[in-house]
Amino acid sequence: MSIYGRSRVKVPASTANLGPGFDTLGMALSLYAWIEMEEAAETVFHLYGDEMAGLPRDKSNLLYKVAQMVFAEAGVQVPELSIAMYSEIPLTRGLGSSASAIIGALAAANAMIGSPLSQAKLFDMATAIEKHPDNVGASLFGGIITAVWDGEHADYIRIEPPQELEFLVVIPEFELETVKAREALPAEVTLGDAVHNISRTSLLTAALAAGRLDLIGTAMQDRLHQPYRAPLVPGMEKLLAEAPGHGALGIALSGAGPTLLCMVDRKEARKQELELFLTETMQENGISARTVWLSPCTTGVTVELLERNGMQNESFLDMIKGELQS
Ligand code: HSE
Fold it and tell me: Signal peptide position in this chain (predicted)?
């Protein structure tokens, strides 16, 4: 009989950079993954949903490896785990699916053993794995975060997203590996481009904190990564240049792409026009893509401790069905 509990976590997707804030700004979005974890006689995975197909179901699985990092840090041994996961976050599209998995596994493993590690410790561990704090910070804390990472420790401030904002993402069917999108970036940039981004990132952070939607378009401009990534996402240049003319307050590549994210005023009258513009521009470039309206997730990861029941699959799936219907 295990002395540890069974944990269930719900963890949001995220968008990173918000345009100029490369590796700095992140925001949690209303798309989710759910994970349950408990000690077992032997390691077993129950991975549900299209996004889980093809992921490893042995101890090389990221969830398992991340959980073991928590146990090692806490000085406990839980070598065999039962792990269930369902995710509605598309993989490799710039919506932070790997960051959600990392945060979900850290939070689930920590809760299972009585939460010996602080949120700040989990943030440092997640950033060390992901190498940048923007997606993991958003999934952990929710809302908008601005964060810095010194190689060992991450500091952040969380900003409550303005209530007037919603987000339209256009998600291309093709996948783009973050590593490939990072390889496209130059090793050095000019002082002019650095100043351009520092000023826009500062303005965007302040505008979001102050609810100044009128400044979002000016502030969401980038010269550090989007120009170099544009050739990897056909249609991106036109979308960045013209979406504001169709009702977007601002538009940016979501993380490393290929998804693009528009910030939109909830009261905007041209929402349908904007959706059509995004999908038609992708189509003109030979790319199938779908649009999804999202809200900010303000809670970040949420954690529950449950009765141990030997991980009955029905109860996990029933919970997911209930969540997806609500
Ligand atoms: N800040 C990261 C990037 C997010 O743009 O490469 C993707 O993981």
Answer: none
